[in-house]
Amino acid sequence: MKIVICEDDARQRKFLQSTIVHSSLFQYDDVEIALIASNPSEVFTYLKEHRANCFLLDIELQHEINGLELANTIRSKDPLASIIFITTYADKLKLTFTYKIAALDFIVKNEPNLAENLIDTLHIAYQKHQNIQTEQIDKTFQVKIGEHVQIIPFTDIYCFATSLNAHKIEMKEKNGVYEFFSNLTDIEQQLDERFFRCHRGYIINLQHIRKIDQTYRTITMTNGSICHYSFRYKKALIKALPSTSTIIFE
């Protein structure tokens, strides 16, 4: 779990870092503090190239962008991220309802059990992270469209195909079609056994095949999409088909 801290008070930043590093959380190899920032600009720069799973955000940042606005941007980019607000004034917490931000927890700086509450909340965030890893991430595909991230269940995806637009991929799923910058080789590494690279220009979901035309080497998906398969992939494709499939062969 990658943790990002955004706190403009140097003493608080040091306290948060020390508390986390010396907690039992660091017995896990996959826990790290990825960024300690004093303002939102540093967080935005980090998120251009990286991802994080948990954000500790001070609400009262001395910046043109406050912690709530920062959280709003984070949430739009990653709906699954855990957001923990830290504030000096408990009455500021009601503002989260105005911004409609679903936070994992709220921690007040001057409460007596601050360190203990912080670690307890981070343990909850870690458990959430583990659940996502085992139950969702390996069963969903994330698509970045502009500044937003769409999370698509594998079961909803019909196929991926190279787009007519250079360096872009077209993904067809139950709710529509997405076009985004990527390549099939990278995408293939993110998928599971339900998907098959049947052509240099196509990856198909084996569970959504309706018909295979062996003369024209085309595959009709359950949504009506037509994909092509290469002759060299034919045997592997047939072998990969689900044993319970009711695919029509022509």
From TrEMBL:
Keyword Phosphoprotein among UniProt keywords: yes
Keyword annotations of the record: Activator, Cytoplasm, Phosphoprotein, Two-component regulatory system
PROSITE patterns referenced in this protein's UniProt entry, alphabetically: HTH_LYTTR, RESPONSE_REGULATORY
Gene3D superfamilies: 3.40.50.2300, LytTr DNA-binding domain (2.40.50.1020)
Record domain HTH LytTR-type: where: 141-243
Coiled coil location: none
Keyword Cytoplasm: yes
Domain Response regulatory: 2-124
Domain of life: Bacteria
SMART domains reported in the protein's UniProt record: LytTR, REC
4-aspartylphosphate sites (modified residues): 58
Function: Required for high-level post-exponential phase expression of a series of secreted proteins.
Name of this chain's protein: Accessory gene regulator protein A
Gene label: agrA
